[in-house]
Amino acid sequence: MPDASAADAALATYPLLEQIQDPADLRSMSSEQLKELAAELRAFLIDSVSRTGGHLAAGLGVVELTVAIHHVFDTPHDRLVWDVGHQAYPHKILTGRRDRMHRMRMKGGLSGFPKRSESRYDTFGVGHSSTSISAALGMSIAARVKGEQRQVIAVIGDGSLGAGMAFEALNHGGPLDPDLLVILNDNEMSISPPVGAISRHLSRLLSSRVYTSVREGSKTALRSMPHLRHLVGRWEEHMKGMVMPSTMFEEMGFNYIGPIDGHDMDDLVATLNNMKAMPGPRFLHVSTQKGRGYEPAEGQPVQFHGVTPFDSKTGRMHKKAGGKTYTQIFGDWLCEAAEKEPRLLAITPAMREGSGMVAFSERFPERYFDVGIAEQHAVTLAAGMACEGMKPVVAIYSTFLQRAYDQLVHDVCLQRLDVTFAVDRAGLVGADGATHAGSFDLSYGRPLPNLVIMAPADENECRRMLQTALEHPGPAMVRYPRGCGPGVEIDPSAPVLAIGEGEILRQGEHVALLGFGSRVAPALEVGEEINATVANMRFVKPLDERLILELADQHQLLITIEENVIAGGAGSAVSELLSAHGLAVRCVHLGLPDVCQEQASHGEQLHVCGLDAPGIRDAVLSEMADMGLDPSLKPALAQGQV
Q: What are the start and end residues of every segment in region (Disordered) (predicted)?
């Protein structure tokens, strides 16, 4: 783990950066000083993230843009909203958090994303994509209503701009004439041709005071002559048509400028100063290179998007110990299942690498569909495929499926369509923290008619459940955690599971531990220590009602254990069943508490929530003592004698 002394020692090599305590210190800097600062900032970022891990390539691509924005605008009075936040590390460094970067994404340390409670410079908490324009528009409207003069800037990437929410905000915002600047950070060159001298010259021309004055003066003059009012739009299109094509952003009411080189500090500062003086909604298109200034990241921007600690000199990442992750198990299964099932189609909302679909996309390109950051579309696309007899598999993170809840309800479950949901990152996710925790999928999935919900206890069971979901003629969800399982060997020939059937793993006395998914392994560990019955429930919906009623009849205390919020989760389903049958057996639920989970290691998070083996054991023994069940076990365990 990196320590503060290492970070402090590194500061000696960044003399200009060390002088920056907040963005106000940038505003008196010369052009050459800004360029030097950007170089130091980039070097510091590489060194810092190499020690802690985190998001790197996106931040390297916006170093100059970040410096320029804070130089030109009066943040935090002027509001700056970052989209997603992967690119916000340079922003954190320049806004008084440089000396805390050594604790990035650790318990009690800096969040990996902008966070309102962390800094007044983080005006909006992010982590999911495509929210920046909506939030910034809301801030601009609020400033107008309150009579406050301030600039509002939203920085959004080309990937995030493809999502529907971003266009909804642009469509709504343009006609309102807000004092809003949207900056498109285009790091894939996916919209416009490469930046050149002519494009740079025209961008600066179009953002100049001369052009703005002529434009506004001419429009005012034309408006005074009603019979010529129709010429206003034609005049402006003619003037811009001489130098660049009109764009969809102009049609939505934004004054479009760009593209400009996002690594040319002089152009960035000049253009931002010009656009700062413009009234109304403005749209600046900036071209950047992901991973800029660090050769390994420039060559492999996807691999260096999110990194583990690495050797900053070579770019070689430190490997994590352990076997196959659940994500890799899904990826292997997907390819093998596609070999046998020609109707299988795979969908991802811009998470090919994260969801383990690289091999499938290469082997079955005609059956692979990356829809971009468009979770709602992904789910309804799958529904349409299922209507035509196909077997779509939607690979999606638990936290991102939340964005497509209406589509899950209305387009899939209501119509009982045959869609398989491979829900990754279910439960706690460690360093990514609250914005990415998959804490709620059992609670929001349980109420939906026709949806089968499964949670594997180990690697082999995950594979069996995926195949079970694929063969099930209706909507089915397999939710599995981030990282590796307990290390169970995978048997490709293992049969599919009977829907709604769990199993008893060990028979004990007095207490039954009902484990769901990732919490089965620690439940079994505790069961062995205290001689409790342990059940692997497997299915959250439908529950194995026969098994639960049997356990309730044979035991005095039931403990449900899940890596999901307690409210509405699997444990709630068990209590509902017991209540429906009029059974008064005591049932206690262990799960995630009613708080947003802050970043820490996965083990630290489980410990805080009482969901690791020691926490489960303490909770069970406390309940047993309250009920007078074998209280002598408690001191024996406390002395380490069991």
A: 292-316
